[in-house]
């Protein structure tokens, strides 16, 4: 595929519209497997997948957006339609930047997501999923995330109750040597586990009624983590240095007996109603923090991050426009390169003809001297460069203004039979045959048969039009 050609299509199942079960059910088992599955589909040139606790997303590059949409149609077969969001080329580019910046995170401005995007990029590249389009899109998103974190206050402080719990706990416990128990694998439990892992906890155990949910969280965090069933929490609590509870249980899950032989333990209970029985706070080796203790930690952080949102959005707007300009320039440069290639072919033919005529006039006295040949070739190169310099500048300006009608006209004026006997390159043919005058996206009526039945009716109708 030519650099800068093709379009990106995306699909997302994320916490804003989907449950934890929906997020887990979408896509393949892991990022690499998802990318490999997508690359095996007809018409897919590049692929990228992002799997976290709170989102499962995939992106493909195809010549035709209808093919891309159809390819992603089976991404979330087991998920309700209301939980799935499809994005077109520009929406995908902007969304990737918002994700890496932390604007789409469950915890506004959280840091972990940018590392997860980097890992997903390396996973996709490792199986051949990253090409010129996605390389620029994903690396731009990562750079945006880095700028947001270094140039704004968007990620300063702790915002969620889960991360606040980890913050309070780490002030009481030497986290590098600690065993931590997180009770609950919902949103707050997941965030608490992520925050403890980010702070370098030695061992992490996640207890949950549904063990697969706990296993999913344990797999996602960067720590020595394991999962147990909820009844086992009491046993783990006996040896834990730190316990964070986050369930929605109607009754306390851990009483004084669970901590009576455990020695010094820090307990942070962010559940409502409480997961920790009141008598636990009366045990001298145990320090208990509740919601009231955590609220003040999060209020100031949330205010500062909300104030920084406009600044983050402005960075994304600027970088988004720059990325679009990069793509436009590459498309224009492809046309310009093809023009120079055609001109060089004509130049070589004419120089060869001129040399032959000069040698014929030498009455068989041998070949044209190298010095004279070099002068002739230099003159021809200079003519080509000087003649093509003004249209080159105009073509790049036209691309920047989305004026593809001017580019099409210039190509036809330059050489109506562009490309010789074999005809023009495919991407040039599409431009010359287009009637809209808009930025070409490689849309073709030739949809692979394997995908034809998967094209949604609304998308197929747009293609027919």
TrEMBL record:
<dbReference type="GO" id="GO:0019353">
    <property type="term" value="P:protoporphyrinogen IX biosynthetic process from glutamate"/>
</dbReference>
<feature type="region of interest" description="Disordered">
    <location>
        <begin position="433"/>
        <end position="465"/>
    </location>
</feature>
<feature type="site" description="Important for activity">
    <location>
        <position position="95"/>
    </location>
</feature>
<dbReference type="InterPro" id="IPR015896">
    <property type="entry name" value="4pyrrol_synth_GluRdtase_dimer"/>
</dbReference>
<feature type="active site" description="Nucleophile">
    <location>
        <position position="53"/>
    </location>
</feature>
<dbReference type="InterPro" id="IPR000343">
    <property type="entry name" value="4pyrrol_synth_GluRdtase"/>
</dbReference>
<dbReference type="InterPro" id="IPR006151">
    <property type="entry name" value="Shikm_DH/Glu-tRNA_Rdtase"/>
</dbReference>
<dbReference type="GO" id="GO:0008883">
    <property type="term" value="F:glutamyl-tRNA reductase activity"/>
</dbReference>
<dbReference type="Pfam" id="PF01488">
    <property type="entry name" value="Shikimate_DH"/>
</dbReference>
<comment type="subunit">
    <text>Homodimer.</text>
</comment>
<feature type="binding site">
    <location>
        <position position="116"/>
    </location>
    <ligand>
        <name>substrate</name>
    </ligand>
</feature>
<feature type="binding site">
    <location>
        <begin position="110"/>
        <end position="112"/>
    </location>
    <ligand>
        <name>substrate</name>
    </ligand>
</feature>
<dbReference type="Pfam" id="PF05201">
    <property type="entry name" value="GlutR_N"/>
</dbReference>
<comment type="pathway">
    <text>Porphyrin-containing compound metabolism; protoporphyrin-IX biosynthesis; 5-aminolevulinate from L-glutamyl-tRNA(Glu): step 1/2.</text>
</comment>
<protein>
    <recommendedName>
        <fullName>Glutamyl-tRNA reductase</fullName>
        <ecNumber>1.2.1.70</ecNumber>
    </recommendedName>
</protein>
<keyword id="KW-0560">Oxidoreductase</keyword>
<dbReference type="InterPro" id="IPR015895">
    <property type="entry name" value="4pyrrol_synth_GluRdtase_N"/>
</dbReference>
<feature type="domain" description="Tetrapyrrole biosynthesis glutamyl-tRNA reductase dimerisation">
    <location>
        <begin position="311"/>
        <end position="415"/>
    </location>
</feature>
<feature type="compositionally biased region" description="Acidic residues">
    <location>
        <begin position="447"/>
        <end position="465"/>
    </location>
</feature>
<feature type="binding site">
    <location>
        <begin position="184"/>
        <end position="189"/>
    </location>
    <ligand>
        <name>NADP(+)</name>
    </ligand>
</feature>
<dbReference type="InterPro" id="IPR036453">
    <property type="entry name" value="GluRdtase_dimer_dom_sf"/>
</dbReference>
<dbReference type="InterPro" id="IPR018214">
    <property type="entry name" value="GluRdtase_CS"/>
</dbReference>
<comment type="similarity">
    <text>Belongs to the glutamyl-tRNA reductase family.</text>
</comment>
<dbReference type="InterPro" id="IPR036343">
    <property type="entry name" value="GluRdtase_N_sf"/>
</dbReference>
<dbReference type="GO" id="GO:0050661">
    <property type="term" value="F:NADP binding"/>
</dbReference>
<feature type="binding site">
    <location>
        <position position="105"/>
    </location>
    <ligand>
        <name>substrate</name>
    </ligand>
</feature>
<feature type="domain" description="Glutamyl-tRNA reductase N-terminal">
    <location>
        <begin position="11"/>
        <end position="152"/>
    </location>
</feature>
<feature type="domain" description="Quinate/shikimate 5-dehydrogenase/glutamyl-tRNA reductase">
    <location>
        <begin position="169"/>
        <end position="297"/>
    </location>
</feature>
<feature type="binding site">
    <location>
        <begin position="52"/>
        <end position="55"/>
    </location>
    <ligand>
        <name>substrate</name>
    </ligand>
</feature>
<comment type="function">
    <text>Catalyzes the NADPH-dependent reduction of glutamyl-tRNA(Glu) to glutamate 1-semialdehyde (GSA).</text>
</comment>
<dbReference type="InterPro" id="IPR036291">
    <property type="entry name" value="NAD(P)-bd_dom_sf"/>
</dbReference>
<dbReference type="Pfam" id="PF00745">
    <property type="entry name" value="GlutR_dimer"/>
</dbReference>
<keyword id="KW-0521">NADP</keyword>
<keyword id="KW-0627">Porphyrin biosynthesis</keyword>
């Amino acid at each position: 595929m030519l650099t800068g050609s093709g379009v990106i299509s995306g699909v997302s199942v994320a916490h804003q519209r989907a449950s934890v079960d929906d997020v887990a059910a979408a896509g393949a088992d892991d990022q690499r497997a998802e990318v490999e599955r997508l690359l095996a589909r007809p018409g897919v040139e590049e692929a990228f997948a992002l799997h976290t606790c709170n989102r499962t997303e995939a992106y493909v590059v195809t010549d035709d957006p209808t093919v891309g949409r159809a390819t992603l149609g089976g991404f979330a077969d087991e998920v309700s339609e209301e939980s799935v969001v499809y994005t077109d080329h520009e929406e995908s580019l902007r969304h990737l930047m918002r994700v890496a910046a932390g604007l789409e995170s469950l915890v506004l401005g959280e840091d972990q997501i940018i590392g997860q995007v980097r890992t997903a990029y390396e996973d996709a590249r490792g199986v051949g999923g990253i090409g010129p389009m996605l390389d620029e899109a994903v690396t731009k998103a990562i750079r945006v995330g880095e700028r947001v974190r270094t140039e704004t206050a968007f990620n300063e402080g702790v915002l969620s109750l889960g991360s606040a719990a980890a913050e309070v706990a780490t002030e009481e416990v030497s986290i590098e040597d600690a065993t931590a128990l997180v009770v609950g694998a919902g949103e707050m439990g997941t965030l608490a586990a992520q925050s403890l892992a980010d702070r370098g906890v030695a061992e992490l155990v996640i207890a949950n009624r549904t063990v697969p949910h706990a296993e999913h969280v344990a797999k996602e965090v960067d720590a020595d983590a394991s999962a147990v069933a909820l009844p086992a929490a009491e046993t783990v609590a006996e040896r834990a240095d730190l316990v964070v509870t986050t369930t929605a249980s109607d009754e306390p899950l851990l009483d004084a007996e669970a901590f009576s032989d455990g020695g010094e333990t820090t307990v942070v209970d962010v559940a409502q109603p409480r997961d920790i029985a009141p008598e636990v706070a009366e045990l001298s080796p145990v320090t208990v923090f509740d919601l009231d203790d955590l609220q003040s930690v999060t209020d100031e952080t949330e205010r500062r991050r909300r104030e920084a949102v406009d600044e983050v959005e402005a960075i994304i707007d600027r970088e988004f426009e720059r990325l679009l300009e990069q793509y436009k320039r590459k498309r224009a440069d492809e046309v310009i390169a093809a023009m120079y290639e055609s001109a060089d072919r004509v130049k070589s033919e004419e120089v060869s003809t001129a040399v032959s005529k000069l040698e014929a006039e030498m009455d068989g006295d041998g070949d044209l001297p190298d010095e004279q040949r070099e002068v002739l070739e230099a003159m021809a190169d200079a003519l080509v460069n000087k003649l093509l310099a003004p249209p080159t500048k105009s073509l790049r300006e036209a691309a920047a203004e989305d004026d593809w009608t001017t580019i099409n006209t210039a190509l036809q004026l330059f050489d109506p039979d562009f490309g010789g006997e074999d005809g023009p390159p495919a991407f040039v043919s599409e431009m010359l045959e287009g009637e809209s005058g808009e930025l070409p996206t490689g849309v073709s009526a030739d949809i692979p048969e394997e995908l034809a039945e998967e094209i949604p009716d609304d998308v197929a109708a747009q293609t027919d039009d």
